[in-house]
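Run log, item B.
One chain of 341 residues. Sequence copied directly from the ordering sheet:
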Amino acid sequence: MISRDTDWDGVRLHVVTGKGGTGKTTVAAAMALALASAGRKVLLIEVEGRQGIARLFDAPPLPYDERKIALGLGTRGEGGDVYALAVDPEGALLDYLAMFYNLRRAGTALTKLGVVDFATTIAPGLSDVLVTGKATEATRRRTRPGAKDSPHTYDAVVMDAPPTGRIGRFLNVSTEVSDLAKVGPIRTHADTVAKVIRSPQTAVHFVTTLEEMPVQETLDGLAELRALTGGAIAAGGVFVNMVRATMLDKDELAAAAGGTLDVAALATGLKLAGIGDEQTLAADLAVELKEHALQVRLQDRARETIRTAGRPSYELPMLTDGVDLAGLYELAAALREQGAA
């Protein structure tokens, strides 16, 4: 296996969150592809039941089962494997009952009776413990169960987590269950989950776009994570998604924003290109360029705000043809080039 340095060496569980509409599922998928290089095996987990991962990879809906979904980023056969899993509280409860009580068959009967819905209603934190428990179990799993000297089954796990607004409570599992069970298997399970999530092998990454509301929600999410956990759960990087390319240089942007572009020169250029009605088109183009320049200024302000968070940041381009598998590999390559994976 080829070793390499990244900004997150030592991190094995990558939790990806973000405001709705910022593309957190897309970024999680791209990160899994980027991590699955040099023969590495990566598990991509979805926890919200939206089947967003299946749609991204143009695959059938994911069952509660780990299955290979793509080859990782690589050349000349150097890519690894990306597996995917859609986690739900019911399936996670069956795993829990099988691990602690050897009661998978009985657990299946209980789920048919609605016991899972009842339990998670009276103890909302239990659902998050069960779901995060599956992610941490996959992170800890060895190729030979119980043999600490054997390799991990997965080199990394990427979790497409809930939105920024509830990520702190979702991950702060030990507090959520403290009133539910003081002792016993449930408490043991929760403590095991918390131990992994609060360790250096876990990082919580935030996805945003260069817009005021997503940027502010990212800063709020980082602050909430620190406040709820006292810094015990490590904040990761800020992934700026859907960044539009700048079409003008610095001086041209200033002229466009100030409305001082040489419209006559634009018209001449259009005429030389064989485009008719160049005067009208030049005037319209000047308006469009002014809007573009003002948008670039807003993006630059958003970048400065992101820098105040003091976290590593990475930029992913806007995919003009939409997000498909080829686009995911393009984003994965951008992450690798910037040292994010």
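Observations after the first pass:
- The longest strand covers residues 235-243.
- DSSP finds 14 helices and eight strands in the chain.
Flagged for discussion on Thursday.
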